[in-house]
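User: My collaborator sent over this chain with a note saying "see what the structure looks like." That's all I know about it. Can you take a look?
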Amino acid sequence: MSLVEARDLYRLYATPQGTAVALQGLSLDVRAGELLVVFGPSGSGKSTLLRILAALDRPTAGSVRVASHDLRTLRGRALLEYRSRTLGYADQHYRRALAPELTARELVSLRLALQGESRETCDRTAGTLLDRIGLGDRGAARPHELSGGQQQRLAVAAALAHRPRLFVADEPTGELDAANARELYALIRELVKDLGATTVLVSHDPAAAAIADRVVQIRDGRVSAEDGAAVVNRGGWLRVPGLEEGARVRGAVDVDVARRLPPTVDPPAANGEIVARVTRVAKSYGDRRVFADVSLEVRAGAVTAVTGRSGSGKSTLLQLFAGLVLPDSGEVDVLGRRVDLLDTAGRAHVRRDLVGVVTQGGDLVPFLTARETVELALEMRGLPAGDARTALAAVGLAELEGQRVSRLSLGERQRVAVARALAARPPVLVADEPTARLDEENARAVGALFAELSRTTGTAIVCATHDPALIEHASVELPLATLTV
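Assistant: Without extra context I'll predict from the sequence alone. Here is the result:
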């Protein structure tokens, strides 16, 4: 019996250049209790499918049902009931689900409390789930006191606490290193199987297949393969002579596919002058020490990859360079300016004039277009807004410059965030997991872009990453664990 039934789903968006198609004729069934993993490149329609299943978006055409709910017609109280009871949703930007003023225990029990469950039930359920995700002793901690991996596990637990019938997760391990990703995948499978939740998990990480009952591939808004077998869809977009629509192909098939891989760019040598450094810095959040006695020098014209397991402090180290957080001790210097001694306004001027910041795309304004997003960043720095188009073209978004951010895929939003930071050509650029939500081809393209930018402009680029496709373009790789005493 299928819990999810989608038939001939289309999702169209109007753009200044015409109509953009996110889904085009996608059909999919998910059996009750099944754990389905959906793969596909950035922009293939994966996240659009999940937003429709979460009733955050509606199809332009086609039908979609979850249990007894027709998601095309849900309105008012019925829509609220579906989202609050039937659905569990783990967003790619998991921090949005973690209210900073609540403790871990309160976050896990929040949905149950809103449904009117007793305090005893809420506390018992929260305690059990926190134990199962390895945070039994951190129930009183607030999100900022937890590592990224711990926050991600907490977001999953909070989404499952009310025992939803359908759980959807969008790139739940996008910011985690391989070891933590495997642990979270195993945890998700264990929890959803115990709870009996039907699960649709979107990813571009091949490791996700290990926990799946079934795997499907999406490309160009359609299901293109299932469990390794090609699916021939209506419309002739995949043509294999002698096969009818709906046929499945296993084994080798000769298909002429032109892959748009970026040219190889050798990493620039790390022999430029030192433009930024941290010296014997330490940072703690509450009683959790992130790192202590860390020193690092960053050179002009080089890409430096700061690696390490999730929770090792990679993101915090980058935030020190940008003045987004202050060290408990030690010095932070950017082009001769002691960032650790500046007030809030002074650190904002450093980010405006000296340090570009590549976020993970979660802070983009949804109603602005891609071009307006970059133009706004340039105008705030007193720079020509015309450079926005060049920056967007550099990350492969020239054709989507007029598209609103809310209608871009999450991978495309990631590239907008990269373009926004690169457009101003800052002397220092810090990028926190800039390829976390990109498929391998786009990740390599961003790595090649960073290498070429550092080579041609002298920009010092520092990336917190665990992505091999980005690390291979770095001049220097510094495992954070080797820097920490």
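A starting point for your reply to your collaborator: Residues 93 and 362 are 6 Å apart (CA to CA).
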